[in-house]
Amino acid sequence: MKHYFLLLILISGSLYSCTNLIDQEAEIWLTVPSKDILFQQQENIVLSQNPNLEPTILIDDQMRFQEIEGFGFTLSQGSAMHLLGMDKDKRKELLLELFGDGKSDIGISYLRLSIAASDLNETVFSYHDLEEGESDPELTKFDLGPDREDVIPILKEILEINPNITLMASPWSPPAWMKDNNDTRGGSLLPENYGSYALYFVKYIQQMKEEGIHIDAITVQNEPLHPGNNPSLLMLAEEQRDFVKNHLGPKFEEYELGTKIILYDHNADRPDYPISIMNDQEAKKYVHGSAFHLYGGEIEALSDVHQTHPDRHIYFTEQWIGAPGNLPEDLIWHTKNLTIGATRNWARTVLEWNLTSNPELTPFTDRGGCSRCLGAVTIDGNEVTRNPAYYIIAHASKFVTPGSLRIDSNVPDSIPNVAFLRPDGKIVTLLLNESKEVKTFSIQTRNYVTQVNLAGGAVATVIVD
């Protein structure tokens, strides 16, 4: 068997004497940075109805939790620009690899967009910038503007490949004229402009629909407690509560949009933020769920929010990897905390930041843009380099299709894992050996069991019929 020094399936001799038992094969994909094995399919492994092999990890597909909506990235203006700089055939080839569902594709199923500029734009803009002294409270001059030149064309190419991809959109800042500091960076939304800003969201969703792009969900504000970015906004929990309860929710209802409203969109160190808003029943009726990043706090905080409001959903929407990246370390941390950790704590999405970068890590805004953000892939002309986030997400996105359900599995020492039941009935298990040593363990899925040796620092995805 290839790579026998990395993944050995050890089955006792008694198996072969049990002629009345039927063996089953499982598909396995492996990443082991120390052996230069990067998201490669291995020879199928054999699972047996072997009564003599005690399972270390027991997967119970009868105990079911949240539905998975998808795995993916943010498509920033910078990402779109990098892709548009490629030759058309090379871009199509890369987009098929990222968003297709073929043998060599990784099946990204969810994308986050910025509503107007994020900090990975060339310049800061909104869809409704006014000259000093100008007034337009009904937003008659609203226009998607610069997004029509890059983000929207790339989105349309992606939708041709995967018309079912789910899109979430997040604002980094309202138009400066709506804020108390009249600046793109920091400041707060003026209460007298709450109504106009709610209309701003409506017009964004409507104009995107006119382009053939459906926005499934919005978050109210990216990182509302981080006003130091450019663009950014300080929005305290009570401000977000009042905005959603009295303006955004009613406006979405008035226009019958159907787009989900998701709270918070910031670090796991402040679960009290979305909890406090959902404790207000008038606000909560408009709220679909809350979103998290992990630049602060512990991933288990997501479960605190779920336990307090189990009738609302949890999303993980952003985590960056700093250039130049460190695959052995990044793979372990992000797999343990995000693709495994976030989903074990009720997240329906896991999204990394962001889809592409170039060798110079541009564009980014001045006065607070991210100058070290490494994309899932680096694009240099037509040359593509796959970075840590690519492999981290691929181990989930290719196999855990939207509509899959997280199912129960125990977690032995040093082997974080999570399991899913797909709509087609297959069971997908994502496994990490976070130690430096080879770990030997056995997995039981339904009535089948196998023994595995997994190298230190390795990630494996196992798919069983």
TrEMBL record:
SUPFAM superfamilies with a match to the protein in the record? (Trans)glycosidases
Residues spanning the signal sequence? 1-17
User: What Pfam family is a match for this entry?
Assistant: Glyco_hydro_30
Keywords, A to Z, come to: Glycosidase, Hydrolase, Signal
InterPro entries with a match to the protein in the record:
GH, GH30_C, Glyco_hydro_30, Glyco_hydro_30_TIM-barrel, Glyco_hydro_b
What EC number(s) are associated with this protein in UniProt? 3.2.1.45
Record GO terms (molecular function): glucosylceramidase activity
Q: Which residues form the Glycosyl hydrolase family 30 TIM-barrel domain?
A: 68-400
Single GO BP term? glucosylceramide catabolic process
**Might you report a single GO cellular component term?**
membrane
- The UniProt record lists the Glycosyl hydrolase family 30 beta sandwich domain at 403-462
The broad enzyme category this protein falls into is hydrolase
Q: Which protein family is it in?
A: Belongs to the glycosyl hydrolase 30 family.
What's the name of the protein? Glucosylceramidase
- Identify the species of origin: Indibacter alkaliphilus (strain CCUG 57479 / KCTC 22604 / LW1)
